[in-house]
Design a protein that fits this description.
CATH architecture of the largest domain: Orthogonal Bundle
Helix content: 40-55%
Distance between the termini: 43 Å
CATH superfamily of the largest domain: 2-methylcitrate dehydratase PrpD
Largest sheet: 4 strands, mixed
CATH class of the largest domain: Mainly Alpha
Strand order of the largest sheet: 4-3-5-6
Radius of gyration: 21 Å
């Protein structure tokens, strides 16, 4: 017991000089990847509508709406910068928790740091603490939390954002404890139904968590108290892990090797703009089109064999008038777009591309199957096998067991830099290089606005 208190004590006491060098580097890599996703998401029409909505709210100009050309209040900035981190669906994640902590933690940290005039060192500390909180809490209730209808990025991300913000607000252990307690009270419902239905409100989950986390920590700073046992709960059975899953939580995951193993090191990065469960199929198709020359019109059928969760989550077909959210969570759309365009990035999620009749017609050739052998090795491996059958009977087959970006086949720092450049589109090249270089030297940036104002 006392998991909430132990987590609060650890996060409140975390300092840069005690962090392993590899953890510091991974935190900076997460921030670099985050910026790439902000750039990519700004290409989407739905995001433009959110930007217009937030801009119209006005407010004090204390924090930057990244890449948008204006400043606003910290709550609005954190919300918007969480939306842009999430919408492109290329955000980092934790396989063991089913969550995407960065879309909540990083925008909350940047907003508070910019308003307070803090530097890169403090941001790194806040980001590491925030990831530890969100990741460990999500791991304690995975996968039952998701199967119960919640999206852990919105729910668990709120705790991570509150933790990061509390660090930057200078709260002590007791203040951190209240920030976590308050977070459990203001945490959003974050319904998985919205994602599965393809509704575009799904894209706000990171921003909502970031903003709610700021509320929780701000209230703690003002002296508002929250349950110091908010995670594990009491005999009343009202703790966060008690009411959001069907079954018993693995509470030991919250404190297991706390301070020895950093869950940040387990975080994966995404090279593609789609749900992680589609990546094995996308990578296999991309390899086949690069290794072989053929006309897409020659394709008779395209079969994707994968594991059960992938079939359930992303096996559904795409249809006319579908949203880009549906496209991101549809293997038939993902492999069709990848085969026809020879890439899977921001361009494949525009409203025009998702509605393209040629692409939609090709997607009807794609069938998704649950493979017993691949299902047996899940979750150790997230394998997908693609079989392309051509008119005349010729076949091409490719299987990917560990998609690129997993810590076992990581995206390198150069990969992430290239992702920034690619997702940034036509933005000024020299400015992009300055952004990349400042993140690489983040611990020596004295005021975080030196970064946020040039994104």
């Amino acid at each position: 017991m006392n998991e909430t208190r132990k987590l609060a004590a650890f996060c409140a006491g975390l300092t840069l000089d005690r962090l392993p060098g590899e953890v510091v580097q991974k935190a900076k890599a997460c921030i670099l990847d985050y910026i790439a996703n902000v750039y990519g998401s700004l290409e989407l029409d739905a995001v433009s509508r959110v930007v217009s909505y937030v801009r119209a709210l006005g407010g004090p100009e204390t924090a930057t709406a990244l890449g948008c050309g204006f400043k606003t209040g910290i709550h609005q900035a954190a919300f918007l910068n969480g939306v842009t981190a999430e919408a492109i669906e290329a955000q980092d994640g934790l396989r063991f928790g089913g969550n995407h902590s960065g879309t909540a933690v990083i925008p909350a940290a940047l907003a508070v740091a910019e308003e307070s005039g803090l530097g890169g060192k403090e941001v790194i500390e806040a980001v590491v603490a925030g990831y530890e909180a969100a990741n460990r809490i999500s791991a304690a209730i995975h996968p039952s939390h998701t199967l119960s209808g919640f999206l852990p990025t919105g729910t668990c991300g709120t705790f991570g954002a509150a933790c990061a913000a509390a660090r930057l607000m200078g709260l002590d252990e007791e203040g951190m404890l209240n920030a976590l307690g308050n977070a459990g009270y203001v945490v959003p419902l974050s319904m998985g139904e919205q994602l599965m239905g393809g509704f575009t409100v799904k894209i706000i989950q990171g921003g909502q968590a970031a903003s709610c986390g700021l509320t929780a920590s701000g209230l703690a700073r003002a002296g508002i108290t929250g349950a110091p046992y908010v995670l594990e709960g009491s005999e009343l059975n009202g703790g966060f892990t008690q009411i959001t899953i069907d079954g018993e939580p693995a509470l030991d995951r919250i404190t297991d090797r706390l301070g020895e193993h950093y869950t940040l090191m387990d975080v994966y990065f995404k090279p593609y703009t789609a749900c992680r469960h589609t990546h094995g199929a996308a990578q296999a198709v991309l390899a086949l089109v690069r290794e072989n020359h053929f006309d897409p019109e020659e394709v008779e059928t395209l079969d994707v064999h994968t594991y059960g969760i992938a079939l359930l989550a992303v096996g559904k077909p795409i249809h006319e008038n579908a949203s880009f959210v549906t496209a991101q969570f549809s293997i038939p759309y993902v492999v069709s777009a990848t085969l026809l365009d020879r890439e899977l990035g921001p361009r494949q999620l525009t409203e025009a591309r998702v509605a393209d009749p040629v692409l939609l017609a090709f997607s009807e050739k794609v069938k998704v199957h649950c493979d017993d052998e691949l299902n047996q090795v899940y979750p150790e491996k997230t394998s997908s096998r693609v079989e392309i059958t051509f008119k005349g009977g010729r076949k091409l087959i490719k299987q990917v067991d560990i998609p690129k970006g997993d810590p076992r086949d990581p995206m390198t720092l150069d990969d992430l830099k290239e992702k920034v450049r690619h997702f940034a589109g036509e933005r000024e090249k020299q400015r992009l290089e300055t952004v990349i270089n400042r993140i690489a030297d983040l611990e020596n940036v004295r005021d975080i606005s030196e970064l946020t104002e040039i994104v």
